[in-house]
Amino acid sequence: MKITDMKLFHVKPRWLFLKIETDEGICGWGEPIVEGRALTVAAAVEELKRYLVGEDPLRIEHHWQVMYRGTFYRGGPVLVSAISGIEQALWDIKGKYYNMPVYEMLGGKCRDRIRMYSHCGGATPEEMAANAVRKTEAGFNAIKIGVDAPVHNVDTLRFVEGQTAKLAAIREAVGSGLDVAIDFHGRVSPAMSIRLAQAFEPYYPMFIEEPALPENVDTLVRIAQSTTIPIASGERLFTRWGFREALEKQAIAIVQPDLCHAGGIFEARKIAAMAEVYYGSIAPHNPLGPISLASCLQLDACTPNFLIQEHPSMAERWDLGEGYLNQAFKIQDGYIAVPEGPGLGIEINEEALLERAYPGDWDTPRLYYADGSFAEW
Ligand SMILES: [Mg+2]
Predict the structure, then answer these.
(1) Which of 49, 68, 85, 165 is deepest in the core (most CB within 10 A)?
(2) Catalytic residue, candidates 10, 185, 261, 311
(3) What residues does each domain of the chain span?
(4) What's the CA-to-centroid distance between 257 and ligand 1, angstroms?
């Protein structure tokens, strides 16, 4: 079998899908993207296509090594995201070729269904509590909320009180059975993260996410040692080498590789194994589309230290594949059943993709402080 062509589809709302075709008629799908830089990653995929066309798609590890190490300069979000989407598509092809799900080729099922968490928001504590109740009524036993933006490097007591009030309102409304994670989004300074974690601690968050940027591991260690709340991070770390120091220094309890950024399905499986050595868990990051979700579910199914799966919780269920897949994923009682189909276990509706085509120019929202200076989203 040989790779004959690679086609890219920019689809709404901000996604990039890749289709790899072969001379045996089997094709595979992946999602190679950096949010807000879809055109840049598309160019990287086009460059890698020069190597891949004519190659045997079943030699996934070999091609990963060539793509990652082959150009002297390695790593970074753009190149590794391009490799990630290609890697997903190659696993999809391999699974269809051998007629088995990807998880079957990576050791087989460790579970029958995948626990999901839902995003939850609210401008006021009352709104936040009402939305959390709605999520529990929909069957979820875990949600994730976010620290509001913009936040100053040293912010007021009122800011801390406002954030804590939302968490308190959720606990008041739903009790102690619901897991509530909190995303700091890497935009909170370490000084403020330590203060916020201390204020949140009585409400027993499931984890706090990116309480500092991952590039300075010692900072993360300092925050981790200041609180009993488990620290999660990893959506902006790439490959095993990106996670090594954070795991060795035990800065994070929960690794969150993004399967569209960290190097793909098998790379994330290796990262999960590294975390397992430190008794850590994996909760794959996923704010993207249905191919990303499908890839995550394959990993979640076969990984013993899997904790919980993120999805963007879009009202239209696009992230679950509605309007993109012939059969969208269904969340029942907060879980998705492990898919049975070969490869990634999905069928893309190509006609629907063409209807949802866009120029690929989605950009990250920009925020500004009251004085006009730039603030992180
Ligand atoms: Mg996050």
Answers:
(1) 85
(2) 185
(3) 3-101, 104-341
(4) 10
The average confidence (pLDDT) of the chain is: 97
How close is the Cα of 234 to the center of ligand 1, in Å?
Answer: 8
Question: Is 63 among the catalytic positions?
Answer: no
In this predicted model, what pLDDT tens digit does every residue of 51-95 receive, in sequence order? 999 999 999 999 999 999 998 999 999 999 999 999 999 999 999
How far, in Å, is the centroid of ligand 1 from the Cα of 68?
25
How far away, in angstroms, is 303 Cα from ligand 1 center?
21
CB 111 within 8 A of CB 52: no
Whether the model pTM is above 0.85: yes
Q: 104-341, which class in CATH?
A: alpha beta
Instruction: Evaluate whether 3-101 and 104-341 have a shared fold.
Output: no
pLDDT digits (tens, 9 = 90+) for 310-319: 999 999 999 9
Residue 187's SS3 state is coil
Query: Measured in angstroms, how far is the CA atom of residue 244 from the centroid of ligand 1?
Result: 19
Tell me whether residue 311 is one of the annotated catalytic residues.
Answer: no
Position of tokens 């309007």? 323
Mean pLDDT of 146-154: 96
Q: Per DSSP, which regions of 205-320 are E strands?
A: 208-209, 231-233, 254-255, 281-282, 309-310
Q: Which of 10, 119, 285, 311 is catalytic?
A: 285
DSSP class of residue 348 equals: B
Average pLDDT for 211-229: 97
Checking if the pLDDT of 301 tops 90, the result is yes
CATH numeric code, 3-101: 3.30.390.10
Tokens representing 299 are: 């990993």
Task: Inform me whether the pLDDT recorded for 40 exceeds 90.
Answer: yes
